[in-house]
Amino acid sequence: MKEMEVNRKYNAFVNDPNLLFRYIGIDASVSQSFFRELEDPMEWLGIKHMDAYINLLCKRKNDLMEKKQFKRKVAVVDCAFFNELTLIWRQFQPNFHAPLTKVFYPGKFNVPLDLIEYAIGNKPAWGTAWASVDDVIVPYFVGGSHWIFSVVHLHNWNITIYDSNSHLLPNNPKHRQEQVLPLRRLFPLICKKSGYYDDSKRRKQGLACMKAVRLAPYQFPCQVDGSSCGAFMLKGIEYVMVGKEPNFDFVQQDIPAFRKQAARDIFANSIEIE
Fold first, then answer.
1. In terms of DSSP bridges, do strands 158-162 and 146-153 run parallel, antiparallel, or are they unpaired?
2. Which residues of 222-240 are buried (b: 16+ CB within 10 A; e: fewer)?
3. Cβ(247)–Cβ(218) under 8 Å?
4. Domain range for residue 20?
5. At what angle do helices 3-14 and 255-268 cross, to 10 degrees?
6. How far apart (Å, rounded) are the C-alpha atoms in residues 112 and 226?
7. What Pfam families does the record tag this protein with (predicted)?
8. What is the pLDDT of residue 170?
9. How far apart are CA 238 and CA 255, in angstroms?
10. How high is the pLDDT of residue 96?
11. 147 has which bridge partners?
12. Residue 53's Cα: distance from chain center in Å?
């Protein structure tokens, strides 16, 4: 749909007094409230907002007309991936800032099959096999209050953490490193059990905890409100995918326009449900 037509249909949908639904491509149907929340800078973004926009980015990445602008070879998982890692790791360490309460034996751990599905590209719906990319992007919600994302660098075998609140913890980068322990500890096991090394022909890595580094406040844009972490995360993921890193040149003032456009882009790629 052309932009004017998208805006006309979008406004008609959002302002319709009747409760209407649209399918947004992530095994979910949403009503007008989904788009109103996405547009409103004061509203927190939820998992459906995140997955819907990531799905759209990956759709563009594979589109013949748009794929040229996506310069990085990446796979992007959904929000459920880290949630599952967290549930597993809490069996061994209920508090990520405290010692383990149960001994973890990497060599004896049975990786759930659905996590292997991520590695071979069968999950999520927009998944890409890790053996065919250079990086894996992982979004997650930490501490019950904040969206951040990490990039797992498969060649260098380390993790970079992107955090729009890094200015609030400038002298304590280990806080985020501890919060992403489920990823650091379990990602190596998923690679081993999924056949990643055989498929990628890359040098085998051990099962030790992966090193993670959080970018400093001057390296990634910082939010100045309490509700924009999700938008900063999505914008950051987009920049990484198109190869604009490290030139993250967006700021807080850009977020309202980004959220407004994201709502219309998701709408334009959704399907009306009768």
1. antiparallel
2. bbeeeebbbbbbbbbbbbb
3. no
4. 3-273
5. 90
6. 36
7. Peptidase_C48 (PF02902)
8. 61
9. 13
10. 85
11. 141
12. 10
Query: In which residue ranges of the chain is pLDDT below 50?
Result: none
Encode pLDDT of 151-190 as tens digits.
999 999 999 999 999 988 766 668 899 999 999 999 999 9
CATH code for position 214: 3.40.395.10
Q: In sequence order, what are the residues at sequence separation of 6 or more whose Cβ sits closer than 8 angstroms to the Cβ of residue 70?
A: 60, 61, 241, 242, 243
Whole-number pLDDT of residue 1: 62
Per-residue tokens: 183: 């990823």
The model carries a pTM of: 0.95
As a whole number of angstroms, the distance between CA 170 and CA 157 comes to 25
DSSP H or E stretch at residue 272: strand 271-273
129, 119 Cβ separation under 8 angstroms? yes
- Which residues are CB-contacts of 268 (< 8 A; sequence separation ≥ 6)? 1, 6, 10
What's the pLDDT at 207? 96
How many domains does the chain fold into?
Answer: 1
CA atoms within 13 A on the CB side of 13: 26
In the chain, how long is the greatest CA-to-CA distance?
59
Distance between CA 243 and CA 137 in Å, rounded? 13
At residue 2, the pLDDT reads: 80
| Token duo for residue 154 | 């498969």
C-alpha 256/C-alpha 41 separation (Å) is 6
